[in-house]
Amino acid sequence: MFKQLKKSLVATLMAALLAGPATPAFADVTDQLPDMGTSAGSTLSIGQELQMGDYYVRQLRGSAPLINDPLLVQYINQLGMRLVSHANSVKTPFHFFLINNDEINAFAFFGGNVVLHSALFRYADNESQLASVMAHEISHVTQRHLARAMEDQKKNAPLTWVGALGSILLAMASPQAGMAALSGTLAGTQQGMISFTQQNEQEADRIGIQVLQRSGFDPQAMPTFLEKLLDQSRYSSRPPEILLTHPLPESRLSDARNRANQMRPVVVQSSEDFYMAKARTLGMYNSGRNQLTSDILDSWAKGNIREQYASAYGRALQAMGNDKWDEARKLLQPLLVAQPANTWYLDLATDIDLGQNKTADAVNRLKNAPDLKQNPVLQLNLANAYVQAKQPAQAAAILNRYTFSHPDDSNGWDLLAQAEAALGNRDQELAARAEVMALVGKLDQAITLLSSASSQVKLGSLQQARYDARIDQFRELQKRFLQYSKM
Q: Exposure string (b/e) for 21-31, b if CB count within 10 Å is 16 or more?
């Protein structure tokens, strides 16, 4: 894969409206949200949740250190959608994001958006454990816990629920300020919120373990992972961040273990993709600390074939990171021979080619990849190889199709802007950069760029009409988002 095209400013996130101690869950075989007593719809419709989710995702992209690595984004979304396909009460699309953060945590917010911290890969021993965290967060979404929390807050303190919502956004951009604002906003109603969110954690655990089992993962992974977190908090002066937003009394652990023990035992092997994603995350996104240690690689080298491949892949990643291109190529070559169509290996081979200025080799390798037409990661790789090989027309042809199919991927727009700039198509370069600005919530800048693009093409032309129509769409978004920006 081409290296991440740009890095956002570091910020963290919070899910304080979902925080609070959990109580033991009751045995229940369904994860359908009961109609009785559920009034979230009176506060937020599904359409409003989607609209708010769109707004907050744009703010998140602009302020948090999202990992825009296409391989990792593809992996967590495929894993997430496997879980979602076995969940009930799904009323929104789902999108999964990965943040470069060494504090273990995860949270979900409006519109089916689930955010994972990269530290989860360090703590999860297997894919079932990672999936257990994701299933828990998916259940927060399907049960509309944030909307229900807003409804509860609105009933008890109608003048403060809007302020609480605004504090969540503030926390995304400025963690300390956001936490302070939220604490102050909820000071008068904190006990009521805690009582409400006890049910949220209980419900997310109960439903999440069912989703986990139906998806083919080991249900024992949930209590095992919770126990790891509890053990860590016992021997640390500060508990893991995930326990601040998802408190873990021992009763919650006992309940998860009891539920898992009532389910049919299964033996589940982690996928090769899990080990590759773990090696890549620890090796490339570790905040300057060496997390892909020799101990991990040596252990994998003695494991099953998937772990052995991950060990060799991890060592090749490390060699590339140290600019030892020939060593990286030598380590990778046996893997390519064994699996010539493997996306992880093709991606790394391309990076090595480009690192050694062998652009023709990179282009030919990717052009001949059997999965090119169906694999967006390989398409981005090939487009990037064309840009590096100074063949912008070929890159633009790929990227115009790619951005049409994946309009929310800033990687495609960034590359398209580079390709159009190399071709001398100033208006199209500006239009691509406008899309990047819009994706990170900078709609004013996006409109300015598109206005400039519109002024550079023939008056009354189809291209000008397209730019002007897009400006109108962005202005409509501004109006729609205005209510949230004032919170």
A: bbeebeeeeeb
